[in-house]
Amino acid sequence: MTVSEELAEERIERFERSMTRSKWKLENQDLSQESVSRVHNSIGRDEEKIGLYRLLLGDVAAATEHLEEATRRYALKYEHKRTYEAEENDQATWQTQRSILERLTYAALLSRNDASVEEAAAKVDDLDAYRRQFPRMVHKYHFTTALARVAADADDQRERVDAFGDSLADVKPDHQPYFGNLATILDGIVSGDEATVRDGLEAYLDDYDEDRNDDPESLSDRVSKRATALYLLAKRRGVDVEIESRYIPDCLRSVGQ
Description:
Elements: H1 5-28, H2 33-56, H3 60-84, H4 91-111, H5 114-122, H6 128-133, H7 138-151, H8 157-167, H9 176-191, H10 194-210, H11 225-236
Helix pairs in contact: 1-2, 2-3, 3-4, 4-5, 4-7, 4-11, 5-7, 7-8, 7-9, 8-9, 9-10, 10-11
């Protein structure tokens, strides 16, 4: 969806001010380890949002710089949390680790940074404890690991995608369409099947559109971070899928694989 330059620049300035405050805290305050982790995450989110707004404005080069910095901040949060909360085995800690890794992978795909994609893929084995301790959430573990390994074109990507698909048998019915569409997209990418990827993306975006409120203040009402990242992943893997959607920035259609 298009966005006015005036609104986008206003939002970008707001996120830049937020980042300035966060960086000042890191440099000038004696923060707890937990606070350091939160600040890196906050900066990563701000960088990601600026990057997405830059994509909506058609400035791929500037967007890439911000998205690369977002991946760096997410990686710092991941490693920091892993180092200082390694002894904690509660569900919240492992859920946070999984969600950070997923966020890192999406940002890496959006930035088209090979090193960041490889970094995310190398970390998925860290989540084995999550799978063992929280079986009711195992489908989320399998999605995150499959996403990262497909992004890196890893040898075990087919195994990871199949495991994700198999795990959906126990998912609640109201969550089935969302995760089922993601499974279809990843399966199509691994198989090199453009029609399957397109079907999965279109179904995902149809559901995404139903949840939007067309709020002029909302970034998520203008771009789908996940769909855009998966679209770029397909292109990255040589699956030349073409899809018309207002939630995927037009400037990316001419970006090379």
